[in-house]
Design goal:
The protein has nine helices and ten strands. It is an alpha+beta fold. The chain folds into two domains: 95 residues, Phosphorylase Kinase, domain 1; 182 residues, Aminoglycoside phosphotransferase (APH), C-terminal lobe (Aminoglycoside 3'-phosphotransferase, Chain: A, domain 2, Alpha-Beta Complex). It has a six-stranded antiparallel sheet with strand order 1-2-3-4-6-5, covered by helices on one side. A two-stranded antiparallel sheet has the order 7-10. Strands 8-9 form a two-stranded antiparallel sheet. Strand 3 and strand 4 form a beta hairpin. Helix 4 runs parallel beside helix 8, helix 5 packs antiparallel against helix 8 and helix 8 runs antiparallel to helix 9. The protein is globular, with a radius of gyration of 19 Å.
Amino acid sequence: MVQEPARSRALGLIPEAVLAHVPGFTAGATAWAVRLPGGTVNASFRVDTSAGRFVVRIHDTTAATLGADHEREARLHAAAAAVGFAPALIHVDAGHRFMVMEHVAGDTWSAQDFSRPERLAQLGAGLCALHAVTPPCVASFDIGASLERHYERLCVALPSEMADFTRLMDRARAALRVSDAAQRAQAVVHNDLHHSNLMGTERLFLLDWEYAAVTDPLLDLACVLAYYPQAEAHADVLLKASRLTGLASPQMLAATIWLFVLLSYFWYRARRLAGPVPAAELAAERGLLARLE
């Protein structure tokens, strides 16, 4: 049995101005909170009040420099919640400093799940349904443009590494041609399918929509295979369940995976521009770079 984490008074963890938007919170009543695991940049808390359990996510101001767009996130999260793929949103701060949503109970996936073909089939079927959702009116995401922005920023900040960044970007431009995203209709994608963002056995919920986008649906599959190389043995299961088999050749998928690995590497390298990062992030960055060679 998983032990319930120790709770603290919510006011000791979360500003009162934020808690004011949580159902059941009043200044005179006691609300409890616990910091939720996961989240490299932002902080999420489960808040317990007399009205139930909720999740508060407080956004870090550095997220935008790493490619996050909280207005786009809120719209895509709401679209996914409307068809049951995400927790219902309760409040979105007008300045996008925080958001409040329903708490979803269930078991979070583990990294081992991505080596199980039955789990990948479940995920692929869920992604197929998500990709069929009518996208709200948001600016589309272009992975090539995102890579170029990271590349330019890194070259300015780290001129001594410019040659290495340029070599990778030259390969990325070639990979973009092979990937040929124009062959596939744009769709709502989650774009960050880390196991900590997947919950449920019978019913699948996707959490943390910070990097969600309207773009090439193949990016969701590339994300899974970039994050979890053990899933590559069952890539055909994921392709078939997501119904992208006829729209993406193995070469297209391989190129898109490489592009997503590069995007992840650039993300981690850009994170270090702001200062020291945990050893686990350095290890992840080194691992991604090794896969690009």
